[in-house]
Amino acid sequence: MAKSAFSPTLEQLQQVGTDCLPGHLGMEILSVADAQVRARMPVHQHHMAPNGFLHGGSVVALADTLCGYGTMANLPEGAVSFTTIELKANYFASVKAGAVVECVASAVHLGRSTQVWDAEVRDESNGKRLALFRCSNMVIYPKA
């Protein structure tokens, strides 16, 4: 598949989210390759649910961000953007403030009109799986 003119570097992906949700949540982008994006996120009080465990929305935000960054890095030629059309998360465990979670998003389907990405979130300290995530994105082209 031919790549779009915009193929973001690791530094660009880290910078693009600085003033947006990824930056506010403290996501650290570690690597970006054609079909995989890796990141980590230290867990602080603002990531927590009232029950004292990592909020599911914090996990979704991390996984969805990586799937989105992966889509950005793999837009087909002529595409200008994308939007999430479906996401699903399954949770298996949680962590408390002070932990660090890591996430790896991998491409499942890189089509001309849609992309599907899977992400796995783990506790960085012991590798325990916290959640699996699937995201479908619609590729956007300029209006004719």
CATH architecture: Roll
**End-to-end gap:** 22 Å
**H/I helix tally:** 3
Question: What overall form do the CA principal axes indicate?
Answer: globular
Task: State which percent range the strand residues make up.
Answer: 35-45%
Overall mean confidence score, pLDDT: 93
Q: How many separate domains make up the residues?
A: 1
Summarize the structure.
The chain has helices spanning 10-16, 21-25, 56-73, and strands at residues 28-33, 36-42, 81-91, 100-110, 114-123, 129-140.
Structural commentary:
The protein has 144 residues and is α+β, with helices and mostly antiparallel strands. The chain has a single domain, classed as Thiol Ester Dehydrase, Chain A (Roll). A 6-stranded antiparallel β-sheet has the order 1-2-4-5-6-3. It is globular, with a radius of gyration of 15 Å. 30% of the residues are buried. The mean pLDDT is 93.
